[in-house]
Every structure is written in C-alpha cells, then in structure tokens.
Amino acid sequence: MQLPPKVTERAFERLSEIGAGAEGKALRVAVEGGGCSGFQYDIKLDEPAEDDLVLEGHGERVVVDSISLPFLSNAVIDFSEELIGARFVIQNPNATSSCGCGTSFSM
User: Fold this and answer.
1) Alpha-carbon 71 to chain mean position
2) Environment class of residue 74 by beta-carbon count within 10 Å: exposed (0-12), middle (13-18) or buried (19+)?
3) d(CA 27, CA 4)
4) Number of helices (H) and strands (E), helices first, in the chain?
5) Rounded to whole angstroms, how far apart are CA atoms 15 and 62?
6) For residue 1, is it within any domain?
C-alpha cells in the first residue's frame, strides 16, 4: 500500500519563514529521470496544480504531482541546516541507493 510522503514540522516552519504561503506558493517536490543514480529530486517553490497531492501544515503547502507520487511513497520531506548549508532533504525508503549530492537516487 502506498502512503503519502510526510512533511516535518521543521520543513513547514522553514516555508513559513521564507513566506512561501504568503506569496501563494507551495514547495513542489518532484522526481525526474536523470542525475547520477537514475532519478533526481526537483525541489522548488511553485503554484499548486490540479492533479497535485497537497500536504498542509502551519498555513503552508507541499505539493507532489501524480507521476512523482509513487516514487515518494512513505518518504519524509525535511529541512536540514548543516555547516555546508541549509536545504530541503528527502528521506526516501524506496531508494535502493543514493548519491553524495543528496538529490539523486535509484530504485
């Protein structure tokens, strides 16, 4: 059974800090072919579309399109702040391997 991805409190808080919802934007998490491992994440602020799954919290939205959704089943969308920088990260149980860049994976 496919479960939708989860979004952490920290990720929603970061969207609120950058004012995404106030501008009518959502964080789009998509999976595309390519990258060093076969698939890669495309994470950006975008307008929600009609066929998107919308995950809401703190007045903010994270959207996933219907094609990317199976690849993100049961994944966790988080925001990470490290010495090398701050970014949205995906913890994906479906990925069999991933790459050091953190945006590419294989299944």
Assistant:
1) 11
2) middle
3) 15
4) 1, 9
5) 9
6) no
Q: What is the mean pLDDT of residues 67-91?
A: 93
Q: pLDDT (tens digit, 9 = 90+) per residue, 24-48?
A: 999 999 999 887 778 899 999 999 9
Cα 28 from Cα 94, distance rounded (Å) = 19
Mean pLDDT of the 91-106 span: 72
| Residues ≥6 apart with Cβ < 8 Å to 85 | none
Segments forming the whole domain that contains residue 86: 6-106
61 in a domain, yes or no?
A: yes
CATH number at residue 25: 2.60.300.12
pLDDT tens-digit series, residues 49-66:
999 999 999 999 999 999
* Total domains in the fold of the chain: 1
* Entry pTM: 0.88
